[in-house]
Amino acid sequence: MEARRSSGNPFVLVVDDHAEVCRGLERLLRSYGMSASYAVGGAAALEWLGECTPDLILLDLMMPEVDGLEVLRRVRADPRTAALPVIVFSALAESQGREPAMLAGATDYWVKTGFNFDDLRGRLTAYLPD
User: Fold this and answer.
1) Are 101 and 69 in contact (CB under 8 A)?
2) What is the model's pTM?
3) Which of 13, 28, 41, 54 maximizes the CB count within 10 A of its CB?
4) How many CA within 13 A on the CB side of residue 62?
């Protein structure tokens, strides 16, 4: 669990149950000039959030044990993290995953199939502090 912020750079926590997806997105975010770390799985994310507060969470929806919706509910229930922007990302089409994510408190929903990185970058910059 690395939690270092480069001076002035927005800090993003990536949460996915696949370490390779986490590492790839972490590298991508760093290439955008952001600070990033990751948690593999929902339980690890909740532990991480107990110790650190990012500027934004990029949260997978479908994970075993503690899924993204449960992580999101807990984020919204905690006064320290309740206002954080949370972009839920999933392989589920918008027609399947967007509504439950938004009802649970997601700020936005991004379909990771095809990985449109320009779209992701635009969403991140829309919700991160300057």
Assistant:
1) yes
2) 0.89
3) 13
4) 9
* DSSP, residue by residue, the chain: ------TT--EEEEEES-HHHHHHHHHHHHHTT-EEEEEESHHHHHHHHHH---SEEEEES--SSS-HHHHHHHHHHSTTTTTS-EEEEESS-HHHHHHHHHHTT-SEEEE-TT--HHHHHHHHHHHS--
Angstrom distance (rounded) from CA 2 to CA 62: 23
A 10 A CB-CB count for 116 gives 13
Which amino acid is it at 84?
L
Mean pLDDT per block of 10 residues along the chain (130 residues) reads 59 96 94 94 96 94 93 96 94 83 93 79 86
8 A C-beta contact, residue 45 and residue 71: yes
Domains, the chain: 11-127 (3.40.50.2300)
